[in-house]
Amino acid sequence: MADPVTFTPDKGAYIRTNTWLAAGAMAVAMIVLWLVGNPYVWTGAPAGLAAVAFRAWYLASEELTTTWQMTDTTLTGPGPRNVTLNQIEAVNLMGSFVQIVTKGGDKHLIKYQADPAATKAAIERAMA
Fold first, then answer.
1. Which of 7, 11, 26, 75 is most buried by a 10 A CB count?
2. How many of the other CB atoms lie within 10 Å of CB of 38?
């Protein structure tokens, strides 16, 4: 049996993902304020930024310690989540996330990967 492969979250990917989320939240908040006729549309930008920044700060201690381990036969994550490699239907990329879809329809995210394509490739190699 080979040593298990560990997939850990990357702080840089966490920051990049939340930066994009903040940009989207800022734009949406400003559009909503504009649509409802608020004369202070600009306040949506700091509100969206503050909301996402607080969320990122609050969740960082949990999200940045979550790891997944892969053995020759199983992918194990938090919770504990156990996925037998021969039960994986698809491995998808979603930004810095790698989505695992099982044949039974369950979906799992390996979040904030520095190189999500490499994570996907490692899982697909193990499945072969």
1. 75
2. 13
C-alpha–C-alpha distance, residues 67 and 70, integer Å: 10
Q: Which residues make Cβ contacts (< 8 Å) with residue 50, sequence separation at least 6?
A: none
Cross-strand partners of 43:
none
Listed by start position, the domains of the chain span 10-63, 68-127
Q: What tens digit of pLDDT does each residue of 38-78 get?
A: 999 999 999 999 999 999 999 999 999 999 999 999 999 99
